[in-house]
Design a protein that fits this description.
The structure is a homodimer of 498-residue chains. Chain A has 498 residues and is an all-alpha fold. Helix content of chain A is 64%, strand content 1%.
């Protein structure tokens, strides 16, 4: 492993984040919430550490597969740690485990919180919470559309073809080019949403924070009542539409902006995502009607639509306490949690395309049992899915089951009840936000033991990085090849400079 | 499809079962429970229907793949219907949905019951319940080791090599030979268990019924308190050992009887099954100790050992109410439910070997991410697992998830709560018996709506026949090829005779 090169890049990312740590200061000045020193100090720590790493380690050019994994995991972990500093320095958030949980929940666009009262926090800290979502969302789009496909992670190779680029709709030769294009789209959609929310009467601060959380499918709100606070059908409808867009492959949005209007309809994953949304809303409206949960059809439809899109896209915003809905609705919502958004979106979960291919695979198997001599191939749209991609997707399900079982076992071993424990793991592993029971939509994660918070933070990270990326680092193979220990590379930059 | 040939074989099976329907009559005579007419009538119905089918349809020689699937599903469904007649005629068991549920639960060796009081039933009816287990267990051994491998179902091809036969430990050329060998082993172990239980003071009737349920990993008891009724450490220990043996591949037992003493240790699936049992017992003893569930270590160890083996082998006997254990124990038990016994045993669930290969697959994937150019193969013992077998096993997991999600959705849609609904599906789909909450170890399935009972009976059938066998019949492909409709084949036997 090129440990030096990895740490050099990590240092640069820390410096970049330390610049973003200055962004809440204008809000602190405006609201006089006394958090300027908190953010300045956090930024300084980040810049100091980052600078030190850059000084100590030279950049390296020929970084390999394993370096890629190390950079991705190290960055997310390091940014979550640095991002937890303002929470810790502000003294508003209990133990460091709590701060780390909240920060990881932000950067992984999960949206699970340890806070029971949101409004008591200083506005600049609330802004930072939302900003971590938005930055995490940026990271995820580039990761899933430009970096993971190159690393061959869990079937994401399929998306090499989807990646936008400046020439002829093909892959930009350099990750930086792809990133710039995607980020422009992301920024543009964010600005449109801020504008639309403000047109609906939402204040600038709330509009920005909720737009960040929506685009990142994060779920942090500036209000304890989440989006329900606004009590506005317009705001909810706008947010439903933009959550849905945020759960869509961003390569498709890019294509739309370059004039290809039929790009969504041509995408098989998007079609299933669309149908799934409507089908789930239909089922929940029906069940809520049968059990008489809502007095009017309009209330029922509004709450069901919002919750289905919020959960399927793994945003986790709330307008209703779905823990009070009939059991069948909860089963539908848990299923949606596991499915998640589209690949290449900011949404979490297993991803619609993986389920699509998984069941195409099972169908092919059944067909082969009836016609043993027939040879079939799995297609996605017009693309024939290569064997190694199928293999990676199936392995992904094995990893998912393993992570889910082990994490649920550990959380319940800490004394948490089954439904709370299992749905807390589902909510974090799929980067959703709320679970059921004691971590339900009106509850929070604050009461869990510190060890459970650390474990669930790890689940958020693993889920966000498509499991494989984290799991690879847990294999002996990964470390067996790191022959040159990190201290052998220590100080080459200083030597070269001297 | 050779519909005539299929129905001819089905007719023969009905006649065979109608002979077994006479077996409870001696018990009815001995206990004077007045059920002689009930069993005579049921037997007559079976013999009449079977005879009619044999008269109407000629046997056919060249039966194909699809005929195999049709025979297997039709037989299990038909036998469960015929086996429900004594319950219905006896007037002791409520609606026909209840009788069908109880009969299907017997033949699929599930052991879920709709009865709240067991002892009130006439002894001959209790004997019939246990006998359905034992016959179902016989069917399953032959199905999993001789029939399904030929049909290529869900990775069972792997077991073609495992199948015992009269010459040189290789596959007997005909299914009948294999069946005879396996049944001798099954009968021999049953007789040993009856003897051991009687030596421990258990009466002949109880010894026979519990031996049938143990060997079949069924779980029906002749007492409401299940095996806990005997309050005997000796009886529990003997049953633990024999449940464990019943959850083991019967091909291994056959090899032991032919003098190969190291056969168990050489089998990779068995080694994992063995380790898993001890690891689960260790964890549950630890958790129960921490939460102070039992006063003495001996009680804790005894209850944990019994419950782990009972659940992992999918027997479902009870000596303790594990619904009162701490949440982590319930998560462990649910995991064991899903894993199930070894392939080629009477146990249900996904099977240890499928999990073994599934995770070997994920590990190979992770290794390939680190060494992208390396080519790896998955081995089971010394055997290299062919690609098509891996593909079938992975497809099995997709089917399993689909069955589980849809069934849980439907059951909760009938108004059942989440934990009850989900564990009722797990308990039936994996052929275990009890679930948690309202279908927990001290409860029963009697209070569920009739539609849920039919659905759960279908889950038992699907689980028992390794999902694929049932799923194939649900595909349009299967029926598309059945060009000659069944009525075109009607009456050829009568014609040929005349």
């Amino acid at each position: 492993m090129h440990s030096g090169g990895v740490l050099n890049i990590f240092g640069k990312l820390l410096i970049l984040l330390s610049l973003f740590l200055l962004a809440p200061i204008p809000f602190s000045l405006y609201y006089h919430d006394g958090m300027i020193a908190t953010f300045l100090l956090s930024s300084l720590v980040g810049a100091g550490l980052g600078g030190l790493l850059i000084l100590l380690f030279l950049p390296e050019k020929d970084l390999g597969y394993r370096d890629g994994f190390a950079i991705v995991v190290l960055s997310w972990l390091g940014l979550a740690l640095l991002g937890a500093l303002p929470y810790a320095f502000s003294g508003q958030m209990g133990s460091f485990a709590d701060c780390f949980f909240e920060s990881m929940s932000g950067f992984t666009t999960t949206g699970s919180t340890i806070l029971s009262e949101i409004e008591v926090l200083p506005p600049s800290v609330l802004f930072w919470r939302s900003l971590t979502h938005w930055l995490g969302g940026m990271g995820i789009i580039v990761l899933s559309l430009a970096i993971l496909p190159l690393l061959g992670v869990g079937g994401m190779q399929l998306y090499q073809a989807e990646m936008p680029g400046p020439t002829k709709d093909r892959l930009a030769p350099r990750i930086e080019d792809t990133a710039k294009i995607l980020w422009s789209v992301y920024l543009l959609i964010t600005l449109i949403l801020i504008l639309l929310l403000m047109l609906g009467g939402v204040g600038f601060f709330d509009a920005v924070c909720h737009s960040f959380a929506t685009l990142a499918t994060g779920g942090f709100s500036t209000h304890t009542a989440s989006v329900g606070y606004f009590k506005s059908a317009y705001v909810e409808t706008v947010i439903i539409v933009f959550m849905f867009l945020a759960g869509t492959n961003f390569a498709l949005h890019y294509r739309l902006f370059s004039g290809k209007y039929r790009t969504y309809l041509k995408n098989e994953e998007f079609r299933l995502y669309f149908k799934l949304t409507f089908f789930a809303i239909f089922l929940i409206v029906l069940a809520n009607m049968r059990y008489g949960v809502y007095d009017s059809f309009a209330d029922n439809f509004r709450a069901a639509s919002f919750q289905v899109v919020s959960i399927l896209t793994t945003t986790g915003f709330g307008t209703a306490d779905f823990d009070l809905w009939p059991p069948v609705c909860k089963v539908i919502l848990i299923s949606l949690m596991v499915i998640g958004g589209c690949a290449g979106s900011t949404g979490g979960g297993i991803k619609v395309v993986r389920f699509l291919l998984f069941f195409k695979y099972a169908r092919l198997q059944l067909r082969n049992l009836v016609h043993p001599k027939a040879v079939g191939a799995i297609k996605l749209g017009k693309l024939k899915v290569p064997q190694e991609v199928m293999v990676a997707i199936l392995g992904f399900f094995a990893l998912y089951i393993a992570f889910f079982m082990i994490a649920t076992l550990l959380v319940t071993a800490m004394g948490v009840d089954i439904v709370t424990g299992a749905t807390a793991v589902i909510a974090t592993l799929n980067n959703i936000g709320p679970g059921l029971n004691l971590v339900g939509p009106t509850a929070n994660f604050g009461h869990l033991p510190a060890a459970a918070k650390i474990l669930l933070s790890f689940c958020m990270l693993a889920g966000r990085l498509e499991l494989y990326t984290v799991a690879v680092l847990l294999t002996p193979d990964f470390w067996a090849m790191a022959r040159k220990p990190v201290w052998r590379r220590f100080l080459p930059a200083a030597k070269a400079a001297g």
